[in-house]
Design brief:
It is a single chain. The protein is α/β, with parallel strands linked by helices. It has two domains: 9-115, Beta-Lactamase; 123-282, 3-Layer(aba) Sandwich (Rossmann fold), CATH 3.40.50.300. Helices cover 30% and strands 28% of the residues. It has helices at residues 9-15, 17-20, 60-76, 130-139, 153-166, 196-206, 219-230, 244-252, 262-265, and strands spanning 27-33, 39-44, 47-52, 80-86, 89-94, 97-102, 111-115, 142-147, 171-175, 187-189, 210-214, 234-240, 268-273, 276-282. α6 (196-206) runs parallel beside α7 (219-230). The chain is elongated and about 80 Å long.
């Protein structure tokens, strides 16, 4: 086995030259499918267009060679890793590229999809009003970031993580795959032995001030988020949802969180559209004394 390691960008670029050639400054993702022309999503958050990059159809042999180079590079590069590896499916984090490789029997034809963040923002770049900034800094400790795919949720989550880290907090992330673009001070965690609950148990021993959970999909994800929040950890969760109400419905769905516990689990929902904060909702629990209402004859 070759023990050579790649420590600089030139070595890495040489291995994945064919893949990098499909990207430009405005490309979010590249989609290479057997017997199809190469395609890419280009534009900006909220305004993506799928374009064909060539008329030539890609062959299985070409994609197979490229997939082999990607996997070899991920094993040798210190800043890359194989996130998921199953029969017919592999997910690789290659520096800042998240690459999904699908082949038979998982897919009916071979496909390589590569996604790259094209924007990295600080929280100040969102130009949030003073009231919201104070809430995020002092009061919000159970946050959901909602939005549709490609709306900019993860970009905002990364900005929020670095904001909390810059305020002297210990910040960690829970991700699958680990593709948030955050500063070196923030350690990024993935499932432990395939379990987010086990990873959350370890995180409690690390005693973080905030955990960014990207993203909440399954019941186990919502349960781990709720457990960490109940333990007093500040939580930021990313969830696919068309609105703030939809995000809360996903939280409550199937008894994931009891209705009466929702405000103590999530106190703020930030909805992202087209790369900007479109709406912010706050949650609180109010208890009213029962009243007696009498009716006339």
């Amino acid at each position: 086995m070759n023990e050579e390691w790649y420590d600089d960008d030139e070595d890495l670029a040489e291995e994945i030259l064919t893949l990098e050639a499909f990207f430009d400054a405005h490309t979010m993702s590249v989609h290479l499918v057997e017997n199809n022309p190469p395609r890419a999503k280009r534009g900006e958050p909220g305004n993506w267009e799928l374009v064909e990059l060539s008329d030539r159809l890609l062959t299985y042999e070409e994609l197979d060679v490229l997939a082999g180079a990607i996997l070899e590079t991920a094993e040798k590069d210190r800043r890359s890793f194989i996130e998921i590896e199953e029969q017919g499916a592999v997910v690789v984090q290659l520096r800042n590229l998240r690459i999904a490789i699908a082949r038979r029997p998982f897919a009916d034809k071979m496909e390589i999809s590569a996604i790259r963040p094209i924007v990295k923002l600080a929280l100040e770049d969102y130009k949030l009003n003073e009231k919201l900034m104070k809430r995020l800094e002092a009061r919000a400790e159970g946050i959901l970031i909602s939005g549709s795919p490609g709306s900019g949720k993860s970009t905002f989550a990364a900005a929020l993580a670095e904001f909390y880290s810059g305020k002297g907090n210990v910040v960690k992330t829970l991700e699958q795959p680990r593709d948030l673009q955050v500063e070196e001070a923030i350690v990024q965690y993935s499932p432990l032995d395939g379990s987010m609950e086990k990873a959350a148990d370890v995180l409690l021993l690390v005693r973080p001030d905030y955990v960014v959970y990207d993203e909440l999909r399954k019941n186990s994800d919502f349960q781990a988020y709720s457990d960490l929040r109940s333990a007093g950890v500040g939580m930021v969760g990313v969830v696919h949802a068309g609105s703030a109400i939809d995000a809360l419905q996903r939280l409550i769905l199937g008894g994931r969180v009891e209705l009466g516990q929702v405000p103590s689990t999530v106190d703020t929902v930030v909805h992202i559209e087209d790369g900007r904060v479109a709406k912010v909702s706050s949650l609180s629990l109010k208890v009213k004394l029962p009243t007696l209402r009498t009716w006339g004859p």
